[in-house]
Design the sequence.
């Protein structure tokens, strides 16, 4: 199963990226993962969204189209989803209800340094994805608090509780995405 991991934060040392790496390591057998990099995407502009799209946009569309399932790993910015993630979703969302996001089984994991675990961004992302007809696996909501305490200095996930839940959730999500 090809899984595209959307990393909600652009910064190179982000906990989102570390979590994405941990998810790749914990992925069930048979998963092939790739991760998005929203840094090269222009801001969404319908004037640029014609037959010939900017190369980074076309790359994103191809990656979404080729994926069997999507995994979103995102922090919360000002009680919502980070602008770059919303921007990437907007690019991938056209034409409305016929975009590559339609019917693509998806899982959302949020995190934060705060005790709330980015739960508001989690809910907001689910709302956005319902607008793109993207079916969601309800884990129930997987939001990780105090994310800065979950990794060692080398960036490896060292929190046993999170690691265990990540493994179980990916396994169940994979089975659900395959229709099982
Ligand atoms: C612009 C900005 C806004 C933020 N707003 C929130 C917020 O509303 N709620 C929250 O829990 N954390 C907030 N944070 C803290 C982030 O959860 C924290 O910086 C997190 O590590 C960012 O994710 P990253 O490590 O993947 O870049 C904010 C951080 C930034 C930079």
Sequence:
């Amino acid at each position: 199963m090809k899984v595209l991991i959307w990393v909600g934060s652009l910064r190179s040392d982000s906990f989102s990226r570390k979590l994405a790496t941990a998810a790749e390591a914990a992925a069930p057998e048979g998963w092939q993962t790739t991760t998005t990099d929203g840094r090269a995407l222009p801001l969404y502009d319908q004037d640029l969204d014609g037959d010939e799209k900017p190369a980074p946009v076309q790359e994103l569309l191809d990656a979404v189209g080729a994926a069997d399932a999507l995994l979103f790993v995102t922090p919360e910015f000002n009680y919502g989803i980070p602008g770059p993630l919303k921007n990437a979703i907007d690019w991938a969302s056209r034409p409305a209800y016929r975009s590559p996001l339609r019917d693509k089984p998806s899982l959302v994991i949020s995190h934060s340094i705060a005790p709330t675990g980015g739960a508001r961004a989690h809910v907001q992302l689910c709302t956005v994805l319902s607008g793109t007809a993207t079916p969601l696996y309800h884990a129930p909501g997987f939001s990780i608090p105090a994310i800065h305490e979950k990794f060692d200095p080398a960036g490896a996930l060292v929190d046993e509780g999170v690691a265990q839940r990540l493994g179980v959730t990916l396994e169940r999500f994979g089975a659900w995405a395959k229709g099982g």
